[in-house]
Amino acid sequence: MVLRRILYLLFVITIMKYGKGQNSDNSSTEKPLLDNQNSDNSSTEIPLLDNQNMPLVALFDTTKLNEVLRAAIKKTVEDTMNEMIPRIKQAVIDDIGYEPGRKKERPAFTASLTSTKNLASNEVVIFDKVWLNMGGVYSQDTGVFTTPKTGLYSISTTVMSYHNSYLHCNLWKNNEKMVLAFGNDVSTGTVNVVMAVKMNDTVYVKHGTTSEEQIVGEHRSTFSGYLITE
Ligand SMILES: *[C@@H]1O[C@H](CO)[C@@H](O)[C@H](O)[C@H]1NC(C)=O
Ligand SMILES: *[C@@H]1O[C@H](CO)[C@@H](O)[C@H](O)[C@H]1NC(C)=O
Ligand SMILES: *[C@@H]1O[C@H](CO)[C@@H](O)[C@H](O)[C@H]1NC(C)=O
């Protein structure tokens, strides 16, 4: 198909060239598309319409032909790749269930509390042991999860209260108090929420009373979250 078009093109060019006559001088403003300076070495003459005794030959300049072919092949390969890449990508997604390199970067974190501690009035709980922190979204210095992109997030926290005491912890988004995780005696309070957050919003767990309360560590209190969808 491509080759046929090239041959046709060369054929037309040859007719144009020879149509100007054999004794062409340099006065012509038309520049032949095929420059035939090395015709002895790099071109092939094929007689055409010979049975009608017409002095017409198809002159294939193989130097230029290579160039044209190379361009045609390159374009064909590019077109094919452009068409194939989305299909290959889809096949990979179908096969392994996610798009490599993209979903891998899905923000996600899991942290837990190493040691039992007293929480002061309205103190942010810092879950100091980080098990997972994809995208570096959770700070083990501040206990704050900062959302790197706008989307729907699943957020969970479990807090365990100490023997014979209460524990009140709230999940906060920016300056908004959302839901409460409560424990009494040695028990856990758990929160699982799906929330819509904007990029750079902050999500954290904060002690919810003015009096001091204890939170049990040993990785029984946890905080985690991940992006469900953008
Ligand atoms: C035509 O141009 C070529 C090179 O451009 C030159 O070698 C040749 O002498 C010219 N012929 C005439 C008739 O001017
Ligand atoms: C054909 O071209 C090659 C390389 O360009 C050169 O070495 C060779 O001498 C040429 N032959 C003729 C007959 O012009
Ligand atoms: C989010 O925070 C980063 C770093 O501080 C900043 O470069 C970016 O502009 C912020 N984006 C939005 C939408 O607030």
From TrEMBL:
GO terms for cellular component: collagen trimer. It comes from the Eukaryota. The keyword Signal applies. SMART domains: C1Q (SM00110). Its main location: secreted. It holds the Pfam family C1q. Residues 102-230 form the C1q domain. This is C1q domain-containing protein. It comes from Mytilus galloprovincialis (Mediterranean mussel).
